[in-house]
Amino acid sequence: MEIVRSQRKPADAAVAPALSLYRSAPALEVRLEDFELFAIDRLRGTIKTPAFPISRVFLVLQGISDGLSRGKKPDEMEKLVSELWRAHMRHQDPSEEMNKDIISHFVLRLVYCRTEDLRKWFLSMETFLFRYRFRLESPESQRLLMSEFQLPYKAISHAEFETVKDKLNQVARSTGPSSNAETLFFKVPFEEVPELVAGRRVFMLKGFAYVAMNQVVSLVATQFRSNLSKALVLTNRKWTSTIRDKEKNRLTPIVEALSTGYLGPDYSQPKEFSEISLKDIDQLASSSFPLCMRHLFDKLRENHHLKHGGRMQLGLFLKAVGLKLEDALAFWKSEFSQKVGAERFDKEYSYSIRHNYGKEGKRTDYTPYACHKIISSTPSVGDHHGCPYRHFSEENLRAALGKMGVGGRSLDDILDKVRSRHYQVACTLTFEAVHAASCDSGINHPNQYFEASQKTLQTTRQATS
Amino acid sequence: MDTNENCLQYPNQPEIFGCCDRILVRREHSSLVSHSSVPFKKGKGEHRNLRLLPTLRLYPRIMTKEETSAERDDMQIDERDLEHPQVSTIPRGFSADYLKLYYGKLFPHADIYRWLSYGNDGKHPACDHSYFGRREFSFTLENDIYIRFQSFNNAVDMENSIREKCPYKIDIGPVYSVDPAKRHAYAQSGNNVFAPVERELIFDIDMSDYDDVRYCCSGADVCLNCWPLMTISMKVLDTALRDDFGFNHILWVYSGRRGVHCWVCDGRARRLSNEQRAAIADYFRVYKGGENNVKKVNLTGPVLHPFLARSYTDVLKGFFEGKLLASQNLFASIERFQKILEIIPDESIASELLDKWQGNRRSSISKEDVNVVRWEQLKHVLQSGKQKAQGLRRCVEEIIFTYTYPRLDMEVSKHMNHLLKAPFCVHPKTALFLILDPITVAIIQYLLLEELNMSGMRSESEDEWERTSLGKSIKFFRSSFLSPLLKSCKEEMESLYNSKVKQSKNALNW
């Protein structure tokens, strides 16, 4: 951890934000036990997952991650974050709280700096948390923080405001009836506010975005994120070059242990005993595949083709299920050759299957997609991937569930969850309906569904034999 | 940033191709002819003047300019063959020899080099002479062999390599931090030192993504009735890229098969990160949905964002009502109008209209086109004062957006390392390419045959060559795109250099 600047001393306690920018590592001594404890508290959440060791179960950041993937609405998320923070980070003494905040953040930087995936996840969650806490600050303290981030944007003049007033109004109204009339706007190069541009929440003119005061959070969050991103890369460099070795008997085992299990098993290594053979695959699809994979599988059998997104989602899933590379090639070939011919399959498609198994190119062994990734994908024309609970119309979803044998009361419950955007809960309910058994852990990953299904079926088989 | 007066603003069309959209289409067993389509509003109700392009003839035989109808029938390449080319219809030796000639005499190596150097090929002290060498190219060779990470230090190296390898397709990738040929040396450190640093902002619109809303063609086929979907997409995007994002140097290219590519070449665009590219792509995204989602356009909110409103008023509405309704017969049969009715979230309204139209005999409808009549009825029902429900407020717009709004391939735009086919590439089997401005389109088929005939005459009369389609394309590329771009690059480079010099002078003064 490097020292960038000494910590800013708050001049006026009333105005000074309680929010740290984590610019510099604290010059504090931290006991080793507190090290792990603070980090765990910060990561705490409210989801029980028996698969994980108890000491690592509850995570604030995990809680946020979970809430987001369940499609919680913004006001629900705010409530959730506030509960999580209160439950795990609050301290009577505000300076103690500040300490815990800062220390735990830096500890987690060590934990999450080490791979691209870890960094990406940590960045997203910390930024989300930051945004939520920024909104709670007063306008003066927000402006103070803005200047901390060196955002030298001046508010637009009254004259300029008059010329674009109508368009600004139009944008405000287009984003929702609850937006209040704003009169303070900043003119900002669009590169600084990608989220606002992406959501069409700002008026755009000749490369500038007109950002309302209440959207300033986005500006600051982008800077926060970019600073943290750079810091994580530096931390990683330092970790691999000096710290890891030096701390091999002290911090290193804790740090490495802290990061496994928090994101859940990623199913990148199929278990030894779970190899499946081609002749079983149809039967397995109808008994144990979650709806998203079942749909892709059926469409593949029907059309003898899938577009890229579908090939990735299904292909990686099958890999984790235990389909060996040779079998995978045979399977995809048997379907695709009916549409494009064997030769074209060999030429155009087999490469990417081998790529998925880490046999080509930079030889990364790609990990199968977890639910949150599938839910946030963007299927387009001709695509069948994505999460059916999110991406299907109600009618199509009804039909698809019917094909799985789900009906009646169960179906209604599931559709209810879908309407309130609890997609993973809907999938869990589907599991329960299909297997006539409960699923305590909640579905986070298609391969988790598959394994749970196989386990349940095996238990049933044993019970009846 | 003020608009560069030399830059291409689509209302001020260069003379070469005339204005408004022109489409040269190969009708079955006939030669290429030019057609006009309905002029579009320029925003203030003006209609552009239509100008005719000369008719192009197909030359089915090598080396002869005459054509007989028998020969013509033999040598037509069916559009369907684009998917499954049958080698038997193309004379052997055609591909390799003509490619060689094409790359030897016609392919504009120097212009491509000048373009992609962005001014760094000059003598100015601020020029970065490593710049061009850090650009990745990829070649697809005969027998579909694909080679990546090709790079060249200068125009001569590039030309020699292309002429030697005769690629069927050339793709352009990003500019990397180091020469791609040296990438392995940097990959070991694991710090991502080999990474893209510049890349044009690109868009890809593919006609086959519109298969669910066009009934005239599907897949790789394109015709007079559905091609306008491309031109209006270009209009919508081009306007937004200039007016909303402030970009000036935009190149639109026919992708050689069934769609268009857009290259935004401003320095500011080239330096965008992946996240910023994704943001722009999302700004443009309206149509959402895979195969299983019925309602693919959702326009929530009491009013539209100014970008969508402008696109709707200036381009989409007029096109839908004035052209698409009739040319695609959107209401003429039950399957077709069912598709539109599915977009209406209110069951009772949808079934009311369904009953009304199912019961209607063609003869009982007045002389007016059935599509127009039914569309008016639908609008009347949805927009009448009775409809206060949220979901219905924007339904008419949603329908129009569903059928006409541009459908982008998001993945192409989001990543800096995405490779895209180079302009002026000619595939010997299809032999189709064109350069176009947002309004005008010219498709040249059997380019090699015609142009090679012409190029033989080049030394005798420069005029003749320039009046060929390739000549025009290159001239257009140079005057409307390349010159303004390079001028702007030079200015940018000079001002940056001057300010650096000034800074160091000030430092010395201490």
Automatic annotation (TrEMBL), chain A:
Record GO biological process: DNA replication initiation; DNA replication, synthesis of primer
Highest taxon in the source lineage: Eukaryota
Function: DNA primase is the polymerase that synthesizes small RNA primers for the Okazaki fragments made during discontinuous DNA replication.
Domain DNA primase large subunit C-terminal: start-end pairs: 282-450
Listed cofactors: [4Fe-4S] cluster
Keywords: 4Fe-4S, DNA replication, DNA-binding, Iron, Iron-sulfur, Metal-binding, Primosome
Family: Belongs to the eukaryotic-type primase large subunit family.
Annotated Pfam families: DNA_primase_lrg, DNA_primase_lrg_N
Protein name: DNA primase large subunit
TrEMBL record, chain B:
Matches recorded under InterPro entries: DNA_primase_S, DNA_primase_ssu_euk/arc
Gene Ontology cellular component list: alpha DNA polymerase:primase complex
Cofactor(s), by name: Mn(2+); Mg(2+)
Pfam families in the cross-refs: DNA_primase_S
Enzyme nomenclature, EC number: 2.7.7.-
Gene Ontology terms for molecular function: DNA-directed RNA polymerase activity; metal ion binding
Entry keywords, A to Z: DNA replication, DNA-directed RNA polymerase, Metal-binding, Nucleotidyltransferase, Primosome, Transcription, Transferase, Zinc
Sequence similarity: Belongs to the eukaryotic-type primase small subunit family.
Name of the protein: DNA primase
Organism of derivation: Musa balbisiana (Banana)
